[in-house]
C-alpha cells in the first residue's frame, strides 16, 4: 500500500456535512478494498471523561478509483461541539488510521480532523415539503395563452417557429387553465421562468422587478395562480434575476444619461464613460450587452433585492426562488439573501443555477439546492450520446454522489432539459426508448426530478430558441406513450419512501455489461437493472450478476419486450416491500 494513494480520501470541508445541529454525515473514499471501516470520534475538551466512540461506515459503491463509505454521527448534546475524528480500517491483518496528515499504522489524536461548532444556520436546510416534490418547469410565454386580450403587439399564431424575438401569447391565465393537466401528470412543484416587466420573450433582461409583465397578466393573476396551486398541494418557485438587469432598466438608463453623477453609477461595473451599447465599457452577463451586471457588493443593490423578495413573498405567498447565474453573484450576498428569505418564511426553498460541480459553491453561498447539470451530463453522455462506456459512467456517477451528503442529494434539482438546452428527445436522436431509460434513471437517483414543459409529450427542438417552442395542446396526451411513462414515474415516486428518502446503492458489472441502481428505505427496496450490452439478456441473468435472487423479485416495469428479452439500453424495475 502506498500512502500517497490515500491523500485526499477525506476533505473535512467538502466531505463532512452538518445535517442538523446535532448530526453530521462523514464520507470516506478508500482506494483499496478494506474491512471493518469505522469512524472514531470524540469531544476535544471532554475526551478524558467521555472517551472515544466509534461507528461502522456503510459502503454504498465502488469503482476502480476507490470504495465509497458514509456514516452519520449523532451528538449527545443539543449540537455538535468540538468534534475530532479519524477513520480506522483493516487490510491484510493490519489496522490503519486515516487522519488529517495522511495514513498511519497507529492512532495520532493530534492529527485528527476537526469540526468545532455547529452554527444555528449552518445545517442543510430541508423543508418538509421538498421530500415528495416533482418539478415542472414552465417558460410562461410558450406554455398556454389563456387571455388573448393581453397579447403583445405582433403576436404570432400558437405553434409558430420559435425565435429569440417572437411572441405567441403565453400568460399566467394560461397556466391557471392547465392546472388540471398538471395535476393529472402528477407534478407538484412549479418553477416559472421570469415574470417581471421586460421587452423580451424570456424576461431575463428585467426592467421593473416590482410588476408582472403586462403580456403575462397582473399581480392578482399570480396571486390566484399561487392560491390555486396551494389548494392542490403544488408549490410555486419564481425565477430571480439579480446577477444583472435589462439594458432599459431605469437605473441603468439613468447612468447612461448622467454618468458618474447618477446615484446608480456604483450599482454596475462601469469601465469607461460615456456608455455605448456597442462598446465594452461595462460588464454584462456572458457579454450580452443588453443585460448589464449588477454590483451585488453595493449595499443599495442588496437592499433593492431584499425589497423585491419581500414584496413578492408577502404579496403572493410563493414558496421560493431560483437564483439565475448564481455562480456570478457575490457569495456573501447570497448567504444574506438566503437568511432574509428564510426570515420571511422558514420553509422557503432556494435553487441556485450552477452548471458544474456545485459543492464548493453550495458551501460558499448557502443555497438549498442547485440545478444538477452535472448529473444531467453524466446521464446523457451514457444514454443519449453513447460517448462514454459503463466504466466511465460508473466512476463519474459515484464521484458525483460522494460529493454530497444523502440529505443534500435528496433535494438536488435533477433535470434532463431546460430553457437553456436542446429538447431531451432531440438530444436522444428522437429515440423514445432512450428517453424512457433516462426518465427511469432520473427518478431512481436521489434528488427531486424535473420535467421541462412538453418533454412529457415529446416536444423536439434544438437549443435556444428551438427548445422554447409552444406547448402542443392539440394532440391528445391521453394517447401519448411518453406521457404515460412520465405519469408512471410521478405516481411511483410520490408513493415510494425509498425514492423519496432512501439510501443509494449503485453497482456496475462490466463483464455482462449491466448496471444497477438500488434505493433502500426502512419499508421497501426498489431496483432498476439496465442492460448495457448489445446482446439480448434476461432479467434472471442480470439479477444473478448482481447477487440478487430472481425468484424473490417481480418486475413492475419494463421498457423492452419483456423481462426475458432486455435489449440494449432497456431496463426492468423491481419493488420489494419489507
UniProtKB/TrEMBL annotation:
<dbReference type="GO" id="GO:0004553">
    <property type="term" value="F:hydrolase activity, hydrolyzing O-glycosyl compounds"/>
</dbReference>
<dbReference type="InterPro" id="IPR017853">
    <property type="entry name" value="GH"/>
</dbReference>
<dbReference type="Pfam" id="PF02903">
    <property type="entry name" value="Alpha-amylase_N"/>
</dbReference>
<dbReference type="InterPro" id="IPR004185">
    <property type="entry name" value="Glyco_hydro_13_lg-like_dom"/>
</dbReference>
<dbReference type="GO" id="GO:0005975">
    <property type="term" value="P:carbohydrate metabolic process"/>
</dbReference>
<keyword id="KW-0378">Hydrolase</keyword>
<dbReference type="InterPro" id="IPR013783">
    <property type="entry name" value="Ig-like_fold"/>
</dbReference>
<protein>
    <submittedName>
        <fullName>Glycoside hydrolase family 13 protein</fullName>
    </submittedName>
</protein>
<feature type="domain" description="Glycosyl hydrolase family 13 catalytic">
    <location>
        <begin position="137"/>
        <end position="493"/>
    </location>
</feature>
<dbReference type="Pfam" id="PF00128">
    <property type="entry name" value="Alpha-amylase"/>
</dbReference>
<dbReference type="InterPro" id="IPR006047">
    <property type="entry name" value="GH13_cat_dom"/>
</dbReference>
<keyword id="KW-0326">Glycosidase</keyword>
<dbReference type="InterPro" id="IPR045857">
    <property type="entry name" value="O16G_dom_2"/>
</dbReference>
<dbReference type="InterPro" id="IPR014756">
    <property type="entry name" value="Ig_E-set"/>
</dbReference>
Amino acid at each position: 500500500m502506498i500512502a500517497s494513494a490515500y491523500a485526499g480520501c477525506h476533505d473535512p470541508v467538502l466531505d463532512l456535512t452538518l445535517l442538523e445541529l446535532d448530526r453530521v454525515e462523514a464520507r470516506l473514499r478508500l482506494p483499496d478494498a478494506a474491512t471493518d471501516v469505522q469512524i472514531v470520534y470524540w469531544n476535544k475538551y471532554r475526551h478524558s471523561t467521555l472517551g472515544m466512540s466509534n461507528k461502522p461506515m456503510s459502503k454504498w459503491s465502488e469503482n476502480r478509483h476507490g470504495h465509497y463509505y458514509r456514516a452519520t454521527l449523532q451528538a449527545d448534546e443539543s449540537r455538535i461541539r468540538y468534534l475530532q475524528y479519524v477513520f480506522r480500517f483493516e487490510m491484510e491483518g493490519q489496522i490503519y488510521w486515516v487522519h488529517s496528515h495522511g495514513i498511519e499504522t497507529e492512532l495520532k489524536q493530534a492529527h485528527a480532523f476537526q469540526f468545532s461548532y455547529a452554527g444555528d444556520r449552518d445545517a442543510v436546510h430541508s423543508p418538509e415539503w421538498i421530500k415528495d416534490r416533482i418539478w415542472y418547469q414552465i417558460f410562461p410565454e410558450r406554455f398556454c395563452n389563456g387571455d388573448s386580450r393581453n397579447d403583445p403587439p405582433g403576436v404570432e399564431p400558437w405553434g409558430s417557429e420559435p425565435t429569440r424575438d417572437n411572441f405567441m401569447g403565453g400568460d399566467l391565465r394560461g397556466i391557471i387553465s392547465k392546472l388540471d393537466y398538471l395535476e393529472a401528470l402528477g407534478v407538484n412543484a412549479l418553477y416559472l421562468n421570469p415574470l417581471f416587466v421586460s421587452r423580451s420573450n424570456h424576461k431575463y433582461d428585467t426592467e421593473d422587478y416590482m410588476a408582472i409583465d403586462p403580456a403575462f397578466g397582473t399581480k392578482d393573476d399570480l396571486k390566484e395562480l399561487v392560491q390555486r396551486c396551494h389548494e392542490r398541494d403544488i408549490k410555486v418557485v419564481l425565477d430571480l434575476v439579480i446577477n444583472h438587469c435589462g439594458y432599459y432598466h431605469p437605473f441603468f438608463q439613468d447612468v447612461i444619461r448622467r454618468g458618474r453623477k447618477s446615484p446608480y453609477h456604483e450599482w454596475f461595473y462601469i469601465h469607461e464613460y460615456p456608455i455605448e451599447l456597442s462598446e465594452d465599457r461595462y460588464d454584462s452577463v456572458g457579454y450580452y450587452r443588453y443585460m448589464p451586471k449588477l454590483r451585488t457588493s453595493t449595499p443599495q443593490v442588496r437592499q433593492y433585492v431584499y425589497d423585491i423578495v419581500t414584496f413578492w413573498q408577502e404579496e403572493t405567498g410563493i414558496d421560493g426562488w431560483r437564483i439565475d447565474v448564481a455562480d456570478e453573484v457575490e457569495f456573501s450576498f447570497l448567504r444574506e439573501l438566503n437568511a432574509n428569505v428564510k426570515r420571511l418564511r422558514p420553509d422557503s426553498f432556494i435553487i441556485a443555477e450552477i452548471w458544474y460541480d456545485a459543492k464548493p459553491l453550495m458551501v460558499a453561498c448557502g443555497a438549498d439546492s442547485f440545478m444538477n447539470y452535472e448529473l444531467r451530463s453524466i446521464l446523457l453522455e451514457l444514454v443519449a450520446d453513447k460517448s462514454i462506456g459503463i466504466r466511465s459512467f460508473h466512476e463519474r456517477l459515484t464521484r458525483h454522489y460522494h460529493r454530497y451528503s444523502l440529505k443534500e442529494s435528496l433535494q438536488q434539482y435533477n433535470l434532463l432539459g431546460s430553457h437553456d438546452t436542446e429538447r431531451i428527445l432531440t438530444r436522444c436522436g428522437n429515440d423514445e426508448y432512450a428517453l424512457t431509460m433516462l426518465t427511469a434513471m432520473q427518478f431512481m437517483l436521489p434528488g427531486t426530478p424535473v420535467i421541462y414543459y412538453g418533454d412529457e409529450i415529446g416536444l423536439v427542438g434544438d437549443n435556444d430558441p428551438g427548445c422554447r417552442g409552444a406547448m402542443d395542446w392539440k394532440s391528445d396526451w391521453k394517447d401519448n406513450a411518453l406521457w404515460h411513462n412520465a405519469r408512471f414515474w410521478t405516481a411511483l415516486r410520490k408513493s415510494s419512501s425509498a425514492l423519496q428518502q432512501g439510501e443509494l446503492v449503485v453497482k456496475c458489472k462490466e463483464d455482462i455489461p449491466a448496471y444497477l441502481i438500488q434505493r433502500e428505505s426502512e419499508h421497501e427496496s426498489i431496483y432498476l437493472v439496465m442492460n448495457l450490452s448489445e446482446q439480448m439478456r434476461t432479467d434472471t441473468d442480470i439479477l444473478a450478476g448482481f447477487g440478487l435472487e430472481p425468484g424473490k423479485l417481480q418486475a413492475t416495469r419494463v421498457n423492452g419486450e419483456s423481462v426475458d428479452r432486455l435489449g440494449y439500453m432497456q431496463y426492468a424495475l423491481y419493488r420489494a416491500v419489507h
